[in-house]
Amino acid sequence: MLAVMALLALCAPTALAYEQRVFDQAALFSTEQMIALEEQIDALRAAWDMDFVIVTTNDAGGKTALAYADDFYDYAPDGSVGYFGHGEGDDGCLFLIDMDNRELAISTYGALMPYLTDYRREALFDDIYGYAADGDYAQCASAFLSGMEGYLQAGVPDNQYYAEPEEKELTAAEGGIAALVAAAASLFNQGRIRRKYNLKERRYSYNLTNYARLNMLNNTDTHLRTSTSRQRIAEPGGGGFDSGRTSTHRSSSGRIHGGGSRRF
């Protein structure tokens, strides 16, 4: 690793100017590939005043890929929040190749979030998924960076909007009340059903001889007309409509992120 860091430092204008942005914890990249990715990120950071981070892991520590990506972006080694990101808004994104969960994950934050709508995110996954499936992880990461650059150049869609995360936490008292209500409703329904099917007056016996009849002369089939409607759903990247929706979620740090994940 020291040799890799030394080579990366030589590629920067000065050793002090170099800031690591590729963290290959799963050892998926060669030294040359790491250098190329760092250079690609340096160019993007300079052009857009946003941060870009590439991470690989083979141990997500029991987290989902998206949660791991969020936490890696948010937390500094000392546990403080606000490690990566550009400017006061910590603007940027992180791309994770998670070999533990076999997932690709994108975590966006700050001013970069509106550029990556849900439609664009899925289209980007469509573009890079094949590289990961084929084991070409460096090309997968490079294609992600190129795709993000394309969306930055395209700008924020005019119809972009945020889908706020649903947040409702039950207190202990609320949880206890809900459990009691559910139990009471269950007991009430059981009693109602028992009363409905319990014949209290006398034992009832159906007179099969008097009331049963068999008619084999008339056989009428009635066909009820049915109607089936089909709606085509456009595939991401296939010329479909971008609704402008950007889904958000709250990370363990309490900050609101965009992004998502896909298995490979």
Query: What number is the mean pLDDT?
Result: 80
Strand order of the largest sheet: 1-2-3-4-7-6-5
Portion of residues within helices: 25-40%
Order of helices and strands: HEHEHEEHHEHHEE
- Give the class from helix and strand content and strand pairing: alpha/beta
Shape: globular
Beta fraction: 15-25%
Overall description:
Helix 2 (31-48) runs parallel beside helix 5 (137-154) and helix 4 runs antiparallel to helix 5 (137-154). A 7-stranded mixed sheet has the order 1-2-3-4-7-6-5, with helices on both faces. By secondary structure, the protein is of the alpha/beta class. It is built from 7 helices and 7 strands, in the order H-E-H-E-H-E-E-H-H-E-H-H-E-E. The protein is globular and about 75 Å long.
Task: Looking at this protein, list some descriptive labels.
globular; alpha/beta
Write the layout of secondary structure elements.
Blueprint (H helix, E strand, L loop, with lengths): L1 H10 L10 E3 L6 H18 L2 E7 L7 H10 L17 E7 L4 E7 L8 H16 L3 H18 L6 E3 L8 H26 L10 H4 L33 E6 L5 E8 L1
Parallel strand pairs: 1-2, 2-3, 5-6
Antiparallel strand pairs: 3-4, 4-7, 6-7
Helix pairs in contact: 1-2, 2-5, 4-5
Summarize the structure.
With 264 residues, the chain is of the alpha/beta class. The protein is built from 7 helices and 7 strands, in the order H-E-H-E-H-E-E-H-H-E-H-H-E-E. Helix 2 runs parallel beside helix 5 (137-154) and helix 4 runs antiparallel to helix 5.
